[in-house]
Amino acid sequence: MRRLPLLLPLCLAFSGRASAQTISVSAGPDPSVDYSRLARIDTFIDGYVRRGWINGAVTLIVHNGRVVQCKGYGYSNTETHRAMHRDDFFRIASQTKAIVTVGLMQLFEEGKCYLDEPVADFLPAYKDMRVLDKYNAADTTYTTVPARRAITIRDILTHTSGLDYPVIGSKDMTAIYAKAGIPSGLGVFDYSLRERMEALAKLPLARQPGEKWAYSLGVDLAGCLIEIISGKDLEDYLAERIFRPLGMNDTYFNVPASKADRLVRVYREDSLHRFVPYVYADEKIDPDYPVRQKRYFSGGGGLTSTAWDYAVFLQMMLNGGTYNGVHILAPR
Asked: Do 137 and 175 contact (CB within 8 A), yes or no?
């Protein structure tokens, strides 16, 4: 069994009524919960730590709006033997996408954009897109054909835009993106999000818009649209419209220095199946990106958060867009 990198080892679970308005910590035992069975989580996660499959994890279980289990296991830093705490920060990677999608849906709900509206209405660079036809790996040249239709906002939110992903995408598109300096979003500091998204528009799509689902940079592009439509950078928009209203006080693109000691360390597996600290040279991503000041806000993967904060976001979604009397989205 492959070991798991310490990038996103937080586990959340919800059960019971979806109408609970807030998440609260149980003042005492919940009579509807069998705590002896709940304790099996300890056996399971502790076994992963003991076998060396993970360094540590945080689990959180919400039942009928009450937290009945929230615990840290193992270590957040094996070198210093710092125990994992339940309020530690994790690089939540693509869980960022759900939050940014909600941000753009807020603007749709306000009538400031439409789901089937072309992205080019806001970013003219996306007008008259081309689609990859043939790629020559020997000299990195390629031919293209015209896109049969425009990319829409619905397309970028559902990964049907024809865009691809750097590093983890198809072989040909990974090479094309690398040559053009298109980032995956992690560990990027000084680029302008709009400038890189406009550079992306100059490259071919991997497939025709609407043709098929493929994981992509679409939600990074969605983050750029939020900035253009709202007139705010993505960091400020999410803080004002989602994080502060929901009380998500530990979710950031830029983790404050005062909280930096709660950031879990990142590890990777070496050739001998040992955990070793992840370093920049491994994949050209600075593992300390959450605490380094940046102005490039990746809608597809740039946020850092805690199990509690993300549970609040998920409970809001389960509630149909409302949490603790705050309306984030309409139920539809």
From this structure: yes
pLDDT in tens, 77-122: 999 999 999 999 999 999 999 999 999 999 999 999 999 999 999 9
Check pLDDT > 90 for residue 159: yes
Task: Report residue 243 as tokens.
Answer: 């994080």
pLDDT given at position 5: 46
- The percentage of residues in the chain with a pLDDT greater than 90, rounded to a whole number, is 81
Confidence grade of residue 14 (pLDDT, cut at 50, 70, 90): low
Residue 9: the pLDDT is: 63
Q: Which of 179, 157, 154 is nearest to 166 (CA)?
A: 179
Catalytic residues, by residue number, are 94
Alpha-carbon distance of 156 to 162, in angstroms, equals 9
**Which residues contact residue 253 at a Cβ distance below 8 angstroms, ignoring those fewer than 6 apart?**
234, 235, 294, 297, 302, 303, 304
Higher pLDDT, 142 or 13: 142
**How far is the C-alpha of 25 from the C-alpha of 87, rounded, in Å?**
14
Nearest-CA neighbor of 157 among 211, 205, 101? Answer: 101
Buried b (16+ CB within 10 A) or exposed e, 262-295: bbbbbbbeeeeeebeebeeeeeebebebbbeebe
Q: Are 56 and 14 in contact (CB under 8 A)?
A: no
Structural tokens at position 101 = 């999608």
- Report residue 2 as tokens: 């492959």
Measure the CA–CA gap between 103 and 330, rounded to whole angstroms.
12
Whole-number Å distance between alpha carbons of 302 and 183: 12
